[in-house]
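Q: Structure for this?
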Amino acid sequence: GESVGLHLPTLSVQEGDNSIINCAYSNSASDYFIWYKQESGKGPQFIIDIRSNMDKRQGQRVTVLLNKTVKHLSLQIAATQPGDSAVYFCAENNQAGTALIFGKGTTLSVSS
Amino acid sequence: EAQVTQNPRYLITVTGKKLTVTCSQNMNHEYMSWYRQDPGLGLRQIYYSMNVEVTDKGDVPEGYKVSRKEKRNFPLILESPSPNQTSLYFCASSLRGHVVSGELFFGEGSRLTVL
């Protein structure tokens, strides 16, 4: 079946460090992946997406890497700031393209 | 400001008392969806709508109804709420009728407690 999971439920880093959040997915037919950030009391917020015909995409301070061979997705955050503290979800489209399938989330804690 | 607005944000109700959670988006999006978020289970899709008058079940539709009479509104109806529907609910919308076409915009969430 389709499932998206994360390797670690929590990650603690120091301000200024680079953070790497990992995600494994099971559906090799998925062609679209997204990372979302959810701050306490708010809805998920889009960070960055990547299609399956790419293996890397960069945004402002964030990079998403896609390894289709091992079905692995990662989000790299450069120079992590306290404002980056949140729960991060990876998601993939379902086969019908009618929904995003979300992973369980990784809680990132940034200490200054 | 582009947004997805849900109401109410917080609600405590009792078993069996019908309730509706409203969702409205001002971005002229075709696609709208409802998710519920539970600890340890993540976000799961309840219902979705590709466009006006087109709705379909997601992964966990039992106990819920939806309607899409207008493009901007997508209410979630709990005809007879039960305690297992206590959850955090999110409405989301996307520009085109296929999520692969673009990002999903989420509302701020509605926390529902059923006693």
